[in-house]
Amino acid sequence: MPKTLPNMKADQSDTESKLPVTDSFWTASDSEQIYRSQAWGQGYFSIHDDGHMYVHPMGIERVGIDLHQIIEGLSERGIQTPVLLRFTDIVDHRLQTLKSAFAQAIEENDYQGGYVAAYPIKVNQQHQVVEEVARYGHQLGYGLEVGSKPELLAVMAMTTDTPGQFIICNGFKDAQYIEAVILAHKLGRTIIPVVENIRELDLIIKFAEKHGVHPRIGVRVKLASAGSGRWATSVGIKSKFGLTITELLHAVQTLRDHDMLDSLELLHCHSGSQHQDISTIKSAITELVHVFTQLHETGAKLKYLDVGGGLGVDYQGSASDQASSMNYSLEEYASDVIYRIGSICTAKDIDHPTVVTECGRAMVAYSSVLVFNVLGSTGPSDLIDPDLVVHDDNPSAPQPLRDLRHALNALREGSQNLAEIYHDTTRARGDAMSLFSLGYLSLEHRAEVERLFWTVCSLIQSACLDMEEVHEPLAGIDDLMSETYFANFSLFQSLPDTWAIDQLFPIAPIHRLNEEPTKRAVLADITCDSDGKIDLFVSDTGHPEHTLNVHEIVDDQPYYFGVFLVGAYQETLGDLHNLFGDPHAVHIEIEDDEWSIREVVKGDTISEVLSYVQFEPDRLARSLEKECERAVKRKAMTVRESRILSEFYESGLNGYTYLNPEDKIS
After folding, report:
1. Domain 380-478 class?
2. Using CA atoms, how far apart are residues 28 and 24, in angstroms rounded to an integer?
3. In sequence order, which ranges of 348-398 are alpha helices (DSSP H)?
4. What is the pTM of this model?
5. What is the radius of gyration, based on Cα positions, of the chain?
6. 197-352 belongs to which homologous superfamily?
7. Do 41 and 48 meet the contact criterion of CB atoms below 8 Å apart?
């Protein structure tokens, strides 16, 4: 069983006793049908009978660890939500799974070459993540990919003890960068600079001759094959990186002229990112292999064929060609890549190359879970009154108000004309707002309009529950009646892709999953930005929906949500909107079927984020202290009051940028 922390059972029992009585007819299986963890979780996440979400770092067949228990345990240690949980064992398992899939494909297709994966550190550059991938990946023969000078410097220092570890250098390079790569060959590094333009090739040759180095060289070619999904335009003749075929042939001739053609070892391409459709992968690989074989015929004896990244992650669990999904499996991907490369090379009587992939998203996305607490809610529920008394229909009352009263009475009398009533109700509300804007509707009447409208809509929503299929215009009634749940996190810091490109991430409560979620809501973060909300969720159909099934908030009891599959790109793309910094990050590992904390990376303090934007925290504190002293001098504040304010300011500078979970929004 997972580790039980001191007093944990007593605290949990006390908590559970205050929660609503569990509906006997609602089970964890019912929640699974709503939140679909088995569809998007790839065996790493599941809902258990106790109503909690569990993580299975080594796959579903192995021990599961209660996420809620982890959060409660961290809270006892003073680590509050929001918190990013990183499961190092999932990273290890993903790397091994990738290796196994290609090993199986190599065996089944009688492929004569090898396979190596390179982790692009841009996907998640956090030191702990890169270190884990590098450490475990080295055991599997995996390498690292860098795309900038800072990334190169980081990786060169990280691989001092593993100089033979494969390093691929993509992206634009200046003279200093290339000279460093050439000199790294003298350290025994297996490092391959990938030529993105002809100028880079000239610099490689120049520094190779200057330092007497016979380097390994790669080239990236621009493919004509179309991409798919959000990044479809990142490939093709107008793609950002790589050489055209004309430039590629020129590069081969240049290397031949300098007696360095044997240095050309790797052919690379960018086929796109998050491929949702397997057919685009097949087309790109086929084109790439034909370029590879024809380069061989020119005398370029390439050893490596780098198919780039693009292996998708099925965020919504629909196994479809939608933007946040993929219509193929890892095994199918590996099989298609190996089969197409092997069959074309065999037909051309060319040795099978070592296949290289840069599938960073598929390596690390599953390993991180963002957990945050709900602070409060707002929405129409406060205006719904099932026992609302409808006054006698006074002919002098404004017509919209009379129409709303009539609609409520019709529903109470059992009318089944729900669509007609909904139309009339919506129109009456609009008419009432117009009258108010013209000064012909009192505040009292407007308040009654609000209560009547939302009460009528609530009754219509309840009646829709008994329908086998809800048609327009009633199909949007759940979205209309949804609440806004305020969540203690920053969308821009922790989930920037949700804001920027409408990326869909699986979101679910991590507890209370043996209770029926009776409300629907959108999630709003705590930034002062109207875009700081999540209103696109994985649904029970696998297609995106604009609201999420949630439980009613219980006073004085925490309610936690997990955002899953956030290990790729989110941390390094995050910004400091409203100066909300990085959340706490906790590395969890499993040993002897128990969870333990491997490392805690404390989130940014207010002082740190102020420093990021060139404020000087010490100077700010001194400025406030002086202002307090002046206030004391003019007797506007007592010494004790000035001390309280100064201490608050000082402790605040050293505190977390997020809200204290104990403080509630009413």
Report:
1. mainly alpha
2. 11
3. 360-364
4. 0.88
5. 30
6. Alanine racemase (3.20.20.10)
7. no
